[in-house]
Amino acid sequence: MRFQPTDRPPLWEWAPWPSALRRWQREALGEGNEPPQYAGCENKVLCGVDLWMLPRYPEAVIAEDERTITARTDRGVLQRTLKSPDEMSMPEHIAYPVQSRTDWEALKRRFDPADPARFPAGWAAQCAQWRQEGPILVFQGPRSPSLFGFVRELMGPERTLYAFRDDPALVHDMMEVSAELTLGLLPRVLAEAPLTAIYFWEDMAYCAGPLISPKMFRQFMIPRYRRITDLARSRGIDTIFVDSDGDVSQLIPLWLAAGVNGVYPMEVAAGMDVVALRRQYGKDLLMTGGIDKRVLAQDRRAIDEELARKVPLAHEGGYIPHIDHAIPHDVPYENFSYYWERKKQLLGLDQGDI
Question: Which domains does the chain have, with CATH numbers?
Answer without folding.
Answer: 18-55+100-353 (3.20.20.210), 58-96 (no CATH)
